[in-house]
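Field: COMPLEX_INPUT
Field: COMPONENT_COUNT = two
Field: RESIDUE_TOTAL = 500
Field: MODE = joint
Values follow.
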Amino acid sequence: MTWQPGASIETLRERAAFLSRVRNFFAERQVMEVDTPLLAAHGATDVHLKSLAVYQDDICLGFLQTSPEFMMKRLLAAGSGCIYQLAKAFRGEEKGPRHLPEFTLLEWYRVGFDMFDLIDEVLALIQHEILGLTVKKIAYNTVFLNTFGVDPLIENLPKWQALVAEHVAMHAVPDQQSDCLDALITHVLSPKWPVDQITCVYDYPAEQAALACLDPDNSLVAKRFEVFLGAVELANGYHELTDAKEQAERMAKDNARRQAAGLPVMVMDDELLAALDHGLPDCAGVALGLDRLFMLKKQKNCLGDVVSFAI
Amino acid sequence: MATANTSEFKGGLKIMLDGSPCSIIENEFVKPGKGRAINRVKYRNLLTGRVLEKTFTSGDSVPLADVTELNMQFLYSDSEHWHFMCSDTFEQYSADDAVVADSKPWLKEQDTCTATLWDGNLIAISVPKFVDLLITHTEPSVKGDTVSGATKSATLETGATVQVPLFIEEGERIRVDTRNGKYDSRVKD
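Field: COMPLEX_OUTPUT
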């Protein structure tokens, strides 16, 4: 049994200074820090997220939040203006060198920003912490076209399955195009990105929109981006979907997929939907894995080395 | 048939992959962005000894392999087979050359080794990290030859050849590291 912390006290001291610099970064930009509950009535409908339920005796009190997104959007709808949060987030069944079931997210929203404005701010924050990095911004379809000569925005499952079969040793080739594309990013594309390069991939396929709005000029594209440092994913952001009706449709679609996969159906967050209905200001938001950024800054490979205790 | 899913994949678990029994070395959970979680698994094919990697979708399951490890005594080898006896049941097993492969130079009759059985068949033999063996032939040492680190060749009772320090004589027993085939120390009887 080891009772000692995973990170040394010296590393924790550096972590404290790191958190303080992050707070300064937002203070200088007049972004307000907020603090939303970890325990909330609704869990995530996202098919690939497992919300942890909290019980008191036999009664379910709610779910530990997989991200502070919905609560923060309710603040935005209530007129908060630009906000950020250093939030603990919880995701069941996620445990590995770069995943912990409880971890720290830095999540922020910028009213009036579009996707590219927010990308620049994410890059500024990372470059403020780690010096000497190069930056590459590249559209999602360009990444795939450059390497495979095939457009990932076009539905062509057999082609992508053939590419996965050729390039990735998988136990079973996935039966969804988005899973095939993910496999090619994790196994073929991202391993080639230099360790000192920030790669920002933007304009994801609409199928992988999550909570991003679609491009008004091209319905195949969602205004979503991801930021990688080397091959490690650091952040995921959107030009936020503000349409309550479309949000409800996406949640219903998530739940239909949950049902088909034999997963529990999650009650839709009607408070979020009511907030969107009231009106979410036009904004862009992003969630950045703060433990991962600190891990890379410290040149470690494992999150357990940079947090006090990894459960 | 008993199966295991990716959340049960732990180091040492024996599973069937591509028709071969395999032993899991490492299992890394990865969840890409908003996508489906995967497990990157490193494993050893127990028939070939090769270490390979394969990615599973989290939740995938595979059949378990009926693999057991037993202590066995090496009895003898003939022109085709190597014969062993289980130390507990006294049951005898035989294996062909390929199965004994890397352990061959260090196998001495009567010695105990670890045998891996798959569905009742011997598929691998591993010897202890260190074995003590008799030197059956080596050139006598030359007086005054004191160059430090110098070695000479010695033939062991199993037929294997190892490099030994110059002071080691024929008829002595030495301890050999079977992982790299190197001389470790002289054994005092």
